[in-house]
Amino acid sequence: MKGRHPGYGGGILRVDLSTGKTVTEPTMKYAEKYVGGRGVNAWILFNESRPGVRSLDPENLLLFGAGALVGSLAPFGCRLSIDTKNAFNDGLGSANCGGHFAAEMKYAGFDNVVFTGRSGRPVYLWMSDGEAELRDASALWGETTWETERAIRDEMGDEGVRVSGIGPAGENLVRSACVITDRAKAAGGSGVGAVMGSKNLKALAARGTGRIEVADPERFMEAVDEALRVVEGFPKARAYREDGYYGVESYAGSPAWEAGFRPVRNGQDDYWDPEKVAKVSGDVMKGYRKKILACFGCPVGCMPWMKVDDGPYRVEGEGWWNNSSNSWCTRVDCTDPEAALKAHLLTNQLGLDGDNASVAIAWAFECFEKGLISKDDTGGLDLTWGNHDAVLELIGQLANREGFGAFLADGVKAASERLGRGSGDFAIHIKGQDSVDGIRISKGWGFGVVTSAAAGRHLRGALHTFDPEIFLSYEGVPWRVFMQEQFKAILDMTGVCLYNNGLLSWESRIEESAARHVAELASSLTGMDLPVKRLMRMGRRVHNLEKAFNTLHAGFDRRHDYPPKRYWEEPVSSGPYRGEHIDHDAWEGMLDEYYRLHGWDPETGLQTREGLSSIGLESVAEILGASGKMPEKS
Question: Which site from 69, 327, 364, 479 is most exposed, i.e. has the minimal number of CB atoms within 10 Å?
Fold first, then answer.
């Protein structure tokens, strides 16, 4: 496309699914203040969403955004941000994934796509070289994400077509439905797949011949070379290449497991029996790995292609992620590696977020253990801990809203409110969204998870460290989370992978690490002046937009920034950190300091006029003030 600004695909595509009309506007209308990806999404979502609209209403916005570095030679520039109203709570819904789709969308001429309305029939969006059209997807409705990708490629006669879509879970408006890109990259959390399904939107597909212009080629290539040198010197780079995602840390037996970062049996404990760990150890899981794959622009490659050759769990596909062992081993107490692999790949096919889905399933298992439900309730399923066949059956039922799975399809908060009988005491959710993380041991991880604007998700402010002197301490946590939030926003605005860049910055040494490289790459690519401090300020604005969105649309305040009841009252019961729990007074102190750092009101947790004005969000302050969503003294 002619007239593209360096670093960008060309424009922002707006699609009215109710009328079928499309229109394109200039990306730079928003990018100069919010760079791209999640940043542009956040500004549009906040300013154009109407209070009172529910997540599954036609009027809800659904936004897809590729970051500014996506599609260029910048290492790890592959990420896609999806933003909308959260299907669990009507607050912020935000998800992110890698793969190749975001780059292809930019090559097709579009940096962001904004959907409104609801189609009268199933459709998918086709994008190619500045043109976009809605195509009939009636024949794809009911198909898995894998089948959908195959069918669209066959229809277009092009194996280079990239697809991002939903499976049966999204079609059935299951709250834990996600969006799957390239068969395996899950934009999970927030029920973004359910929002997509509510619009009768099956998929987005892209193929383009465009290219990304570079503002300063010589400076940009120097920045690329420097970033690659850093990657090659990164101690875990070789482990990533050899072992897949997180190297050996993605498997049982890693430091994370030994430290007890994995919730066991629905969070009854955070430490798993070593004999069980050994059954799904790194050596065991690596026996199923056939090759390693990479997302667009990744010089490392961390995605294992796994295969179970025969038997009842015969399956083949991409991925065995860090959270896979969390979701399908410890949380449900399953020790069969092949069944766990089957569960992981089945959720990808059905378009289920494994994190959210496993929380609902584990809650049901605990209800069964406590005698609150029986086989009469479950349709004959024996929900005894470790019954992997029951887990697999429930995954299918959940995605299709069938059998007992239908009871779990709206999440643990809704299910526990329907069941009663004290089941809410162990319904693990934050701000209404099922939450997969164990948070009693690592205080910085837990604080970042609980205060996340995306409601209990660990890819915003949560601190990643295996150093006990840091993760057991409350000291300094608010500052580290505050800085990590801004750094993660930078990565999402530029579309850079957290896993390979964030490890360099998880101790909040922001200017000494990956942020400096990202800033130089983004500045030389786009021609905009984007030093680290300016990007950090932009990241703060994005986080505050999302916080304000939650205030307006979900009513969240300080009362909602607390852990689930179980993590207050039940300490870790075994392992090296037995007795660890969340101290109430320490948590209150962290909240006070965290709010002060942001310029928010410590008493209510709400934003203040002064705090918002200090980062250039006066218009947001006006909206909150007019809505009565600001402290009186502000």
Answer: 479
What span, in angstroms and rounded, lies between the C-alpha atoms of 533 and 548?
A: 22
- The answer to whether the beta carbons of residues 112 and 45 sit under 8 Å apart is no
- List the beta bridge partners of residue 409: none
What CATH number should be reported for the domain whose range is 11-206? Answer: 3.60.9.10
In words, the CATH class of domain 443-626 is mainly alpha
Span 239-274, pLDDT tens digits: 667 766 533 344 455 555 555 668 999 999 999 998
Residues 123-139 pLDDT 10s: 999 999 999 999 999 99
281 or 15, higher pLDDT: 15
| Phi-psi domain of 204 (left: phi exceeds 0; alpha: psi -120 through 50; beta: other) | beta
Question: Is the Cβ–Cβ distance between 40 and 50 less than 8 Å?
Answer: no
What architecture does CATH give domain 237-434?
Orthogonal Bundle (1.10)
The residue ranges of DSSP E strands in 104-241, in sequence order, are 110-116, 123-128, 131-136, 162-165, 179-181, 185-187, 201-206
Question: What stretch of H or E contains 293?
Answer: strand 289-293
Q: In terms of Cα–Cα distance, which of 494, 399, 386 is closest to 173? A: 399
Q: 432 — phi, psi (to 5°)?
A: 90, -10
CA distances from 103 to 161, 334, 386, 520 (A): 11, 37, 41, 20
Cα→Cα distances 256→73, 91, 238, 249, 331, Å = 33, 31, 19, 7, 15
Which helix (DSSP H) or strand (DSSP E) does residue 434 occupy?
strand 433-434
End-to-end CA distance of the chain, in Å? 47
CB 452 within 8 A of CB 481: no
- Which amino acid makes up residue 505? S
Phi, psi of 334 (to 5 degrees): -100, 135
Grade residue 232 by pLDDT with cuts at 50, 70 and 90.
Answer: confident
Q: Where are the domains of the chain?
A: 11-206, 237-434, 443-626
CA-closest candidate to residue 399, choices 442, 349, 327, 452: 349
DSSP state, 49? P
